[in-house]
């Protein structure tokens, strides 16, 4: 998109009309060189490696392309907007919590949001899920403002605008998340629907005006697009789409991990609404829990499962954790049944200390450095056992700082509960920054295909060699020259293979390369030697010697 120019003056790209084919990765649109070419605007029909890609709606692609046009292609341009959305979600969480939990619960919810590991981890990624989570939360905040706020017109207009953008970011799954969130809000708080017929009608018109043109453009230019969309959405319900397939209970053990580091108050936050007060249950306290439970149950019924799919549910988790935290601090101050809340408070202190100690060890022993290119050090324990990088004063110093931060909340006494919570939130937030800066980011960079792609590009530039761009992983494609041509006369074709856990490719399986080189016959395949630090045991490069078929057939 970025290379084609701005949308209104983009250079049209010719691609062969695609066929809908079933591959090992699921149902895909594949260009058939035998079909007549079609001209498309890359901003309207996203293209990847010369293939039409419609698995995801285009908004994240558009945002990344705009950033590339402004600041040049790179990781920062792709990650900037999702990270900004995560920051804005803090303000939205404050607003939502202030209208459902009160002012005291608002700042508690904001602190829990910014110090939650899963939230921080997901919003630093250039994926569609942060967009979906942001627009889901924005929709809910505007809907609640339309119900309980003073003005009811502009919140509804922003609501429908956010729905339209959310549909362009992730598709109809946004409506599922909104149904659970809004349904739980009205059923538990007993509020009526926001009034204002004109605002609803104008909002619906705005939604249709924004959300409909793109699918209409695609359907008019790309055959079988509707069938692919049906497979990607409804296929998860029918069991036809088995990509990312997991057992029905796969999410259950992950819930405690998603609540880190607030796991102790998360456990009691689930129980808290069921504790009678004044001899009866308070229905409004069930709002975040009903939203949370409905989302988990629904997505557990789908065949495809991935932790990122639950990111739009995280505001519900933050709300019921904040709800219990506010009640806990009040009970400890007033000495009303303080045993359970005091235990939760001490458990949270222990979690902070444990995280500080673990992070100190990981930094001091430079776990990120140990795992870089070392097949025996793929885990933290293995990295410590097979330690090859010497300790440095810098890493020891950062490790000591992480350890002291973990101990910081212990300074606050049991009755100074507000001070404890503030210090605990600061502690968790700073530890997260240190973790991603000194451990997670270096480990991610060690597994980056940047160096591997550099080796591949250099190998493909040799005389008599060319690179097959079929089935190239998206992560590798990002770092390869997008203008590198395929030479249909080269005798050596380089093929990149992403290793699968259950199948180690044998060089004798020449039939494996048939789809990668459709215009030649593979006769010999040799795995190229690539520096370990460039490979990270995820991608492999094969030099395939071919016999060319008589007559020009083109290439990819």
Give me a quick take on this structure.
This protein is an alpha+beta fold. The chain has helices at about 60-70, 75-100, 105-115, 115-120, 130-150, 155-170, 175-190, 195-210, 215-220, 225-240, 250-260, 265-270, 285-300, 315-335, 340-365, 365-370, 380-385, 395-405, 415-445, 450-460, 475, 530-535, and strands at about 15, 20-25, 25-30, 35-40, 45-50, 50, 465, 490-500, 520-525, 540-550.
Describe the fold and architecture.
The chain has 556 residues and is an alpha+beta fold. It is 54% helix and 9% strand. Among the domains are: 1-46, no CATH class; 340-446, no CATH class; 450-548, no CATH class. It starts with 12 loop residues before the first strand and ends in an 8-residue tail after the last strand.
Enumerate the spans where pLDDT stays under 50 for 5 or more consecutive residues.
373-378, 552-556
Sheet with most strands: 4 strands, mixed
- Shape type: globular
Total number of helices: 22
Question: What is the residue-mean pLDDT, rounded to a whole number?
Answer: 83
C-alpha Rg (nearest Å): 26 Å
Our estimate of the beta-strand percent is 5-15%
Question: Fraction of residues in helices?
Answer: 40-55%
Q: Give the strand tally.
A: 10
Strand order of the largest sheet: 7-8-10-9
**First CA to last CA: what distance?**
19 Å
Secondary-structure content class: alpha+beta
């Amino acid at each position: 998109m970025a290379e084609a120019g701005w949308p209104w003056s983009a250079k049209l790209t010719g691609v062969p009309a695609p066929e809908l084919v079933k591959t090992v990765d699921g149902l895909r649109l594949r260009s058939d060189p035998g079909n007549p070419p079609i001209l498309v605007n890359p901003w309207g029909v996203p293209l990847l490696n010369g293939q039409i890609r419609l698995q995801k709606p285009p908004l994240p692609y558009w945002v990344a392309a705009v950033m590339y046009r402004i600041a040049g292609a790179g990781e920062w341009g792709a990650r900037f907007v999702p990270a900004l959305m995560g920051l804005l979600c803090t303000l939205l969480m404050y607003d939502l919590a202030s209208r459902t939990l009160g002012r005291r619960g608002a700042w508690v919810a904001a602190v829990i949001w910014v110090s939650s590991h899963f939230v921080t981890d997901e919003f630093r990624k250039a994926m569609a899920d942060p967009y979906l989570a942001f627009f889901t939360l924005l929709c809910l905040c505007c809907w609640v403002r339309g119900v309980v706020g003073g003005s009811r017109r502009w919140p509804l207009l922003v609501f429908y605008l956010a729905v339209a953008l959310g549909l362009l970011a992730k598709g109809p799954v946004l409506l599922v998340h909104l149904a659970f969130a809004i349904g739980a809000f009205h059923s538990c708080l007993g509020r009526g629907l926001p009034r204002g017929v004109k605002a609803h009608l104008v909002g619906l018109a705005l939604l249709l005006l924004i959300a409909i043109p793109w699918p209409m453009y695609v359907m008019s230019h790309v055959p079988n697009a509707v069938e692919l969309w049906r497979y990607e959405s409804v296929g998860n319900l029918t069991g036809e789409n088995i990509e990312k397939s997991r057992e029905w209970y796969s999410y259950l053990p992950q819930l405690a991990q998603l609540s880190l580091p607030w796991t102790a108050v998360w456990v009691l936050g689930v129980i808290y609404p069921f504790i009678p007060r004044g001899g009866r249950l308070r229905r409004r306290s069930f709002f975040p829990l009903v939203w949370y439970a409905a989302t988990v149950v629904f997505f557990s019924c789908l065949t495809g499962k991935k932790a990122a799919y639950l990111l739009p549910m995280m505001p519900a988790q933050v709300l019921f954790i904040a709800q219990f935290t506010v009640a806990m601090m009040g009970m400890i101050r007033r000495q009303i049944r303080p045993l359970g809340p005091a235990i939760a408070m001490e458990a949270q202190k222990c979690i902070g200390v444990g995280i500080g100690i673990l992070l100190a060890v990981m930094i001091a022993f430079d776990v990120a450095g140990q795992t870089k290119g070392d097949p025996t050090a793929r885990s933290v324990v293995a990295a410590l056992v097979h330690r090859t990088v010497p300790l440095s004063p810098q890493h020891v110093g950062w490790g000591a700082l992480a350890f002291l931060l973990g101990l910081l909340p212990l300074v606050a006494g049991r009755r100074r509960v507000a001070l404890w919570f503030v210090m605990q939130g600061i502690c968790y937030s700073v530890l997260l920054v240190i973790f991603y800066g000194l451990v997670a980011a270096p480990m991610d960079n060690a597994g980056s295909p940047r160096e591997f792609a550099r080796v591949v590009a250099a190998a493909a530039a040799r005389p008599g060699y060319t690179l097959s761009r079929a089935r190239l992983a998206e992560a590798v494609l990002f770092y390869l020259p997008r203008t590198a041509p395929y030479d249909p006369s080269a005798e050596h074709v380089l093929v990149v293979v992403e290793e699968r856990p259950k199948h180690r490719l044998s060089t004798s399986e020449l039939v494996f390369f048939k789809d990668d080189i459709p215009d030649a016959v593979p006769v010999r395949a040799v795995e190229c030697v690539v520096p370990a630090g460039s490979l990270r045991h995820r991608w492999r490069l094969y030099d395939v010697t071919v016999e060319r078929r008589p007559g020009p057939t083109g290439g990819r």
